[in-house]
Write a structure and sequence with these properties.
Elements (H helix, E strand, L loop, with lengths): L4 E6 L2 E13 L2 E7 L5 E7 L2 E8 L7 H8 L1 E3 L4 H7 L5 E2 L3 H11 L2 H8 L8 H17 L3 H14 L4 H5 L4 H11 L3 H5 L2 H10 L4 H13 L3 H15 L2 H14 L2 H14 L4 H13 L3 H11 L5 H13 L9 H14 L4 H13 L4 H8 L9 H13 L6 H10 L3 H14 L5 H12 L3 H18 L1
Parallel strand pairs: 1-7
Antiparallel strand pairs: 1-2, 2-3, 2-6, 3-4, 4-5
Helix pairs in contact: 4-5, 4-6, 5-6, 10-11, 11-12, 12-13, 14-15, 15-16, 18-19, 20-21, 21-22, 22-23, 23-24, 24-25
């Protein structure tokens, strides 16, 4: 089931938040959610590991959170990637930042810990965060880990370009040597710095070579959801069938039917317009019997149903008595176009059911106009002629019994009763409307009225004998 809400906990107090969106950017994932008072909260993840959540009164334009939602890949619920992140635990507890940063050092390198600390600059004083990163730098320096120091220093420079540490070590010979090796793309040093490599590749991920390298990195690290995210964006960016085919294979290997459907819908909404996606989405809609979505997709994309797909659609409508009620009149007419074009022998009966459904809420004149585009189909013509006749008879007081008979054909017993009652008053000696009323009241389950008109009919016939 899709995760539309998330449970957070602070000091034994639980709250339900409504998920709004999720963004993936490099190693980070951030989920935005709101409470009943429309207060916004952000849940932070590093890769797929939960870190902390925080409430946001106001975010600066240059905040890390805004950067993630502007430059990252954004997903709206329901979406399987959001579901995967939120399914990692039943609820998400609020942690003190001091406790969090201390714990991070037990699970991550100090370089990665420094990177994670930068996620929270909207919720912790920037100077305090800078000082924490500086302490990590000096810890590595005391241990003689100069390369790690260099890498932490660059995280600090990105976070706070004018920090005193950046100036203090700007001329350091050891660091200058590392600068050269990075500039020259030294494979040995780059291969040992996945944080730098991911940042570099992510910024140019739409180039084929960078995309392949980043995909390989995510595969080796087991970050399949990050691989899916960049593959989704790549397929939409290139509009190339080969990129969609690779993504589709990844989706098929990982997700069940309903999740696949949500992923295909997401791709369609993002603007992936290749026919293979449209056909896959159409197939998924047919499999899940989503009438409205089938018709909307056909209308938007101009897809033509195959004979097999038309047959599936016909079968769907036959087996679902409420199909017509789920659709707008325009959608219903579009559906009938496809059913009539399929040549199914029961298409006329389905059209009759559709008109019956429309008569619940619309006048005959409306249905006459609605049905006009279907007239050219041989199967539809006899049914639509009856609607045309009803439209002619509706103002003729001398033809109310005939009109009632037509209403009965279209499963409108109450309207038929009105017509027969009027005709009975008009022709007091005619037993036919009385006979009809006995039949109609029986059909609607009104026993007393049925017996009364049945007896009246018997009496009239006796008098005529």
């Amino acid at each position: 089931m899709p995760f539309s809400t998330v449970t957070v906990k602070e000091n034994k107090q639980e709250s339900q938040l409504q998920v709004q969106r999720m963004a993936i950017f490099n190693q980070s994932k951030i989920i935005e959610a709101v409470n009943d008072q429309d207060e916004t909260y952000y849940l932070f993840f590093h890769k797929d590991q939960y870190l902390n959540y925080a409430s946001a009164k106001k975010l600066t334009k240059r905040s890390y959170v805004n950067k993630v939602f502007q430059k990252g890949i954004v997903f709206l619920p329901p979406h399987p990637l959001i579901d995967f992140v939120l399914s990692s635990q039943p609820q998400f507890s609020k942690r003190s930042f001091n406790g969090l940063f201390k714990k991070l050092q037990n699970y991550y390198s100090l370089q990665e810990t420094a990177l994670i600390a930068t996620y929270f600059e909207s919720f912790i004083n920037k100077e305090k965060l800078s000082n924490f990163i500086e302490s990590l730098f000096y810890k590595e320096r005391r241990d003689g880990k100069l390369l790690s120091c260099y890498r932490i220093l660059h995280i600090l420079k990105d976070f706070s370009p004018h920090h005193r540490l950046a100036d203090a070590f700007s001329g350091d010979l050891d660091f200058n040597r590392y600068d050269e090796r990075y500039k020259n793309n030294d494979e040995t040093i780059l291969s040992s710095d996945p944080i730098y490599m991911e940042k570099k590749l992510y910024s140019s991920k739409h180039h084929d070579q960078s995309f392949q390298k980043l995909s390989n990195m995510y595969t080796k690290q087991g970050r399949i959801n990050d691989l899916l995210a960049i593959s989704i964006q790549q397929a939409v960016h290139t509009q190339e069938p080969k990129d969609y085919a690779a993504l589709h294979a990844l989706i098929d290997s990982r997700f069940e039917d309903l999740d696949r459907l949500h992923l295909l819908e997401d791709l369609h909404k993002r603007g992936l317009a290749i026919e293979t996606l449209q056909q896959d989405l159409l197939h998924a809609y047919i499999e899940n019997e989503k009438f409205k979505d089938i018709l909307k997709l056909i209308h938007q994309s101009g897809l033509t149903l195959t004979s097999h797909q038309s047959g599936q659609l016909v079968k769907m409508v036959k087996e679902n008595d409420d199909a017509a009620e789920e659709l707008t009149p325009e959608e219903l007419r579009m559906l009938l176009e496809h059913l009539l074009e399929s040549g199914d022998p029961e298409a006329a009966e389905i059209l009759t059911r559709a008109i019956s459904s429309l008569l619940d809420e619309h006048e005959v004149s409306y249905i006459k106009k609605w049905a006009e585009p279907l007239k050219h189909h041989p199967q539809a013509e006899p049914v639509i002629k009856k609607v045309d006749l009803m439209n002619e008879l509706i103002e003729d007081p001398n033809q109310q019994m005939k009109l009632g008979e037509l209403y009965h054909e279209f499963r409108q017993p109450q309207k038929a009763i009105e017509c027969m009652s009027f005709d009975m008053e008009l022709r007091e000696e005619d037993h036919r409307p009385v006979q009809w009323l006995a039949k109609l009241y029986h059909e609607v389950g009104m026993k007393e009225e049925h017996h009364a008109y049945k007896q009246l009919y018997i009496d009239m016939v006796k008098r005529r004998a």
